[in-house]
Amino acid sequence: MATRTLCDTDSTQTLSNKTLTGPTITGAVSSTLKQLDDNIVTIDNYASFAAAITAIGATVTTLLITKSTAVTANVTVPATLTLWFVGQGELSISVSVVVTILRRLINDDNRRIFTGSGTVSFVGNNSLREIDPLWFGAIKDGVTDDITTLQAAVTAAVGAPCRTVVADGGTFLISTALRCTGSVYFDFRGGATLKAKAGFTAITASDGNPHGVMVYVTGADVRFEQVTFDADSKVATGMMGIWTSGVGFDCHVYRCTFKNFILDGVNISTPVLFRPGGDYNRVEQCKFENCFSGAQTQGGNGVVFHDNDYFAPTSGASLDTAFGLDGGIGCQCTHNRLIYASGSPNPGSHIGVTSGSKDFLVADNTILGQRGGVGIYVWDGGVSAVSYGTIARNILDGQAYVATGTYSQIKILSTGFLSSHIIIEDNQCVNGATGAASSTAMDVIANATLVRRNKINNQSVQAGIAFRSGGGTLAIDDNDIDTNSKCIMKIDAPATNSGKIMWIRRNTFRTCDIGIDIAGAVEATEPVYFQDNQFTVPVANSVIGSRWDPGFATGTGDAGNKPHYCGQRTVMHSTVVPDGTWTDNGGAGSFKVGDIIWKVDVAAGGRAHALVPERSGAPHRRCRSS
């Protein structure tokens, strides 16, 4: 391409009397534009914009747009033609008209150069690197409604090779959803803001219901970087920040901030919601401030929530799940930090994994100051199994929150024992809630579950770990449980759980009122194997017994359970316990220590009973080695 140097210094100079075709041209020339096409023409030479495009043809040319120029029919600017907007130059595009630009454009002042109700397309433009909403008239002052101009910029970016919409600071006030129907990259360098306008207009979303959605994504490969979403506490039918739907997959949300997504008492407000079909989406290094929830996926596969910060509101009625994995395969919630302060409302759960989720990972998260509910909650709802998941290396610090209802730090709840093959390992549950009789550090009801190497301490709850055995083998190994004011472990198997095995091995139990509480229904299970555990509870307290009701319900004893002691198939092997610490509340049964079967004789009105070798009855199953 032949070029001519017009200015060769780093300062802005005046282009004057450089007439190549047409009249004299006077205007400011940016220092970055040192070379232009040899053939420079002005729109003043032609009857219309379409006439200029036709006359220039394939000749390599720079066309100066020096005035408001009407475009009334579809037109394509070829890859050989550069548009240079100077002075008051702009293209005024009529409604339904599409202007396709295949080469770079020059806009020295970065001002509005496209007006009217028509459309600009950069599909096929390999010269353009980014698109600025200012070209379409965005004001970004936080007062003027920018939805039309911002939508024009996004529409122009869809399908363009650069696909990048940039904004360097400022606040775009929007009154309804910004729609992304294809691949767009929002690069809001400097942290530009999208802010919901008062009276925000809802749209009918993919679930068939009206929602206030700030960005509605129905295309693939959309990226948001350094965007601040401010719902401004607007609650029209619930406020959503980003909603992906249908083929809205491969959506990446990176280093964004979400603010003021709150609950109106009826409708939910979710900063990021990936609906079914939203596969391989990511939310990474984002911040959620004063939000009803954080990010949730509903059925998407391969979704990742990683390295985000969630700061809960300090007032309000309730919260939803901060990070939710609802169905899908291979989803992850990792290295996130959830912070709750005094006054924060109680959520149902903080990190949730619900029905249909498979091969999930919840790891390396920190939950500080948990407010009621459940810290990490896996629940199948009795609908679709949650299976083959791992919960690992999480830190849950309740900061001794005073709870009034159910409180668990980690809970696996499988209705009908649908869920299975879940590993819970290397977690730390500390400073649990006080005041709630139905609180636990870990509550596990699932099949084929392995709970190992967890540390639980400073719990002022009814049980450090409340294990209710599921419908399959449950192994509780190598855990360290300390400082529980009530009961360290409760084994409470519903009657529907039968023919299964529970292993409790190599655990350390310290400082408790009751070491292990085995409820009567456990008699319906296959053997419970205690092996190589270490009890260091005070001698005056019980290590193993069916003591449950005292202190938590009216009456005394254990009248609600079948008479038993440790379950009639329980085996004790190589387990270290203090002498004289066995109790049973109102029943009789047997257990095995080493190769000797023992029977508990019930003394009227007493709870501590002598151990007498049992010489009759069916032999008990011998303990397997670990």
Report on the architecture of this protein.
- 3% of the residues lie in helices and 39% in strands.
- The protein is built from 2 helices and 64 strands.
- The strands form 9 sheets. It has an 18-stranded mixed beta sheet, covered by helices on one side. It has a 15-stranded parallel beta sheet with strand order 15-17-20-24-27-30-33-37-41-44-47-50-53-56-59, covered by helices on one side.
- It starts with a strand and ends in a 13-residue tail after the last strand.
- 47% of the residues are buried.
Give the SSE map.
Layout: E1 3-5, E2 13-15, E3 27-29, E4 35-37, E5 40-42, H1 49-56, E6 61-65, E7 68-71, E8 75-77, E9 81-85, E10 90-93, E11 98-101, E12 105-107, E13 114-116, E14 119-121, E15 141-145, H2 147-157, E16 164-166, E17 171-174, E18 178-180, E19 185-187, E20 193-196, E21 203-204, E22 210-217, E23 223-225, E24 228-230, E25 239-244, E26 252-254, E27 257-259, E28 270-274, E29 282-284, E30 287-289, E31 295-298, E32 304-306, E33 309-311, E34 318-319, E35 323-326, E36 332-334, E37 337-339, E38 346-347, E39 349-354, E40 361-363, E41 366-368, E42 373-379, E43 387-392, E44 395-397, E45 407-413, E46 420-425, E47 428-430, E48 439-445, E49 449-452, E50 455-457, E51 463-467, E52 474-477, E53 480-481, E54 487-491, E55 502-505, E56 508-510, E57 514-518, E58 528-531, E59 534-536, E60 542-545, E61 571-573, E62 590-593, E63 596-600, E64 611-613
Parallel strand pairs: 5-6, 6-9, 7-10, 8-11, 9-12, 10-13, 11-14, 15-17, 16-19, 17-20, 18-22, 19-23, 20-24, 22-25, 23-26, 24-27, 25-28, 26-29, 27-30, 28-31, 29-32, 30-33, 31-35, 32-36, 33-37, 34-38, 35-39, 36-40, 37-41, 39-42, 40-43, 41-44, 42-45, 43-46, 44-47, 45-48, 46-49, 47-50, 48-51, 49-52, ...
Antiparallel strand pairs: 1-4, 2-3, 21-22, 62-63, 63-64
